[in-house]
Specification:
It is a single chain. With 468 residues, this protein is of the alpha+beta class. The protein is 29% helix and 24% strand. It has 11 helices and 20 strands. It has helices spanning 50-61, 86-94, 139-152, 219-223, 297-306, 360-378, 383-391, 393-415, 418-428, 432-443, 453-464; strands at 41-46, 66-70, 83-84, 106-108, 110-115, 118-123, 134-136, 156-159, 161-168, 174-181, 202-212, 234-243, 251-255, 258-260, 263-265, 267-273, 278-286, 324-329, 338-339, 342-344. Strand 14 and strand 15 (263-265) form a beta hairpin. Helix 6 (360-378) packs antiparallel against helix 7. The longest helix is centred in the C-terminal third of the chain and has 23 residues, at 393-415. The protein is globular. The two termini are 14 Å apart.
């Protein structure tokens, strides 16, 4: 149920080679978004994950002065399955990221689904607007790769800077952020302790607009009065790594039946080969189950893996990382996506796909959409035009994902009923042709125009379904 982002005259060019700095172009200032006194940038982006780095990259390509603030220092860890569908790969290509296997990128052919006593291998669909392969890459290296691409495009990246709150003018409009330097982690030889003197030094950064890309918790959004919506689904993912002979698997593997004793839970388990001797193994669960609040997720992961073949190596002695968990904010669970000079992208705006828990592709895509709107807004000659353009950002997101996310909400509500989940698994898995369609729906992969009958139905449903 893919809907393409409407083309824009200000859309940054997509390339396939390494990103390079773009010569700045003059941007016409409007009084509404004129630089505050002693402005540090045209735009401040808070958070250098996939959403923040993509936003900053496209803004810098258009010649804007962009300050990207990241509270951690790279490389830094993030809880994730580390798998990219073709949708995510397309977003990478749009940023000019090369995906050579020598740099840790591991290609995959498709999705292996296990459930109802059936094992299916489904190749990614052949579509004109998406590559025919997926990728696996550890978030430890993935996020840094995107942040460095943004730097090459001209973004000023500051690491170890924790944003503590917004700076507001008399009308309550955000004009910057306050931030504090994080301490440099001490090294084994004692290096890094000198930075502790910067802990109490808070400074202010000012800009014409601010983008919140600070993840699910999004403290900046909360400080601006934007809280999570209870009428949107939420997922929880837990994962860890094991040394395993399955590390070079060329399919992403998804287990559809998650049993906790005699309870069938809404969600799935995954096994993704990392190509480096390890597998990323984890599970994701939805809050649409009555048992959601009472599940020991880490214990459930251990119990699930206890049923795996011993030769796969998913045992405690082979575990090479801690078991970590994170929330998956789905289906626009924080709105509005624009208010008083602040735009939300990625997890900060609840962009995770409710159907499959995929977040990276939507984080990067929403960053590109936000950048396009900002570029247009800062080029407007008057206050009304600038603010009207900024106010169009939520509608642009709804036009792109709204109907699909609404369908996703209905889907997760349905599978929250164990009987529905069991019926769908038992009767769907033995039908490969049906499951190929299901995979396209779950991964949001369809031709935007024409294509197979399945693509036309997906697009039509997305258009006629009320936006999330």
């Amino acid at each position: 149920m893919t809907q393409e982002v409407p083309p824009s005259a200000a859309q940054p060019p997509r390339g396939t080679g390494a990103p390079s700095p773009v010569a700045p172009r003059p941007v016409v200032s409007s009084p509404m978004v004129a630089p505050p006194a002693a402005a540090d940038a045209d735009v401040i982006v808070v958070g250098a994950g996939p959403a923040g780095s993509a936003t900053a990259f496209y803004l810098a390509q258009a010649g804007l002065d962009v300050l990207l603030l990241e509270k951690a220092t790279f490389p830094r860890e993030k809880v994730c399955g580390d798998g990219l569908t073709p949708r995510g790969v397309r977003a990478l290509i749009g940023m000019g990221i090369t995906t050579d296997d020598r740099d840790g990128w591991v290609p995959n052919k498709g999705l292996r689904i296990i459930g109802g006593g059936v094992r299916l291998e489904l190749r990614w669909p052949e579509l004109s607007n998406y590559p025919g392969y997926g990728l696996v890459r550890s978030r430890l290296g993935f996020d840094e790769t995107l942040a460095r691409a943004a730097e090459k495009a001209g973004v000023r990246l500051l690491e170890g800077v924790s944003v503590t709150g917004p700076v507001l003018d008399d009308d309550g409009r955000i004009t910057g952020v306050t931030a504090r330097k994080q301490p440099v982690p001490a090294q084994p030889d004692g290096a890094g302790t000198a930075a502790s003197t910067e802990m109490d030094t808070q400074r202010t950064y000012r800009a014409r607009l601010v983008v919140a890309a600070d993840g699910n918790s999004s403290r900046l959004s909360l400080a601006m009065g934007l809280r999570k919506r209870d009428d949107r689904p939420l997922g929880v993912a837990v994962r860890t790594y094991y040394t395993s002979p399955r590390h070079d698997d060329d399919y992403l593997e998804s287990w559809l039946e998650l049993w906790d004793g005699d309870r069938l839970l809404p969600g799935y388990g995954w096994i993704f080969g990392m190509g480096d001797g390890t597998s990323n193994v984890g599970l994701g669960l939805l809050n649409t189950s009555a048992a959601f609040q009472n599940i020991d997720y880490r214990g459930m992961l251990r119990r699930w893996l206890a049923g795996m073949p011993a030769e796969w190596g998913y045992t405690e002695e082979n575990r090479v990382g801690t078991v970590r968990g994170a929330a998956l904010p789905m289906g626009f669970n924080r709105t509005p996506h624009y208010t008083r000079g602040l735009l939300l992208v990625g997890d900060a705006g609840g962009m995770v796909n409710p159907f499959n828990g995929e977040g990276i592709a939507y984080a990067m895509e929403s960053g590109e959409i936000a950048a396009r709107v900002i570029i247009q807004a800062l080029a407007q000659p008057d206050v009304r035009g600038a603010e009207a353009m900024l106010a169009s950002y939520p509608q642009a997101l709804k036009d792109t994902y709204g109907g699909y996310y609404t369908l996703g909400r209905k889907f997760v509500e349905a599978i929250g009923n164990p009987r529905v989940m069991q019926f769908a698994t038992r009767h769907g898995m033995p039908r490969p042709a049906l499951m190929r369609i299901v995979m396209k729906v779950l991964a949001n992969l369809a031709e935007p125009r024409g294509g197979h009958a399945t693509d036309r139905v997906m697009n039509a449903l997305s258009r006629i379904t009320p936006a999330a």
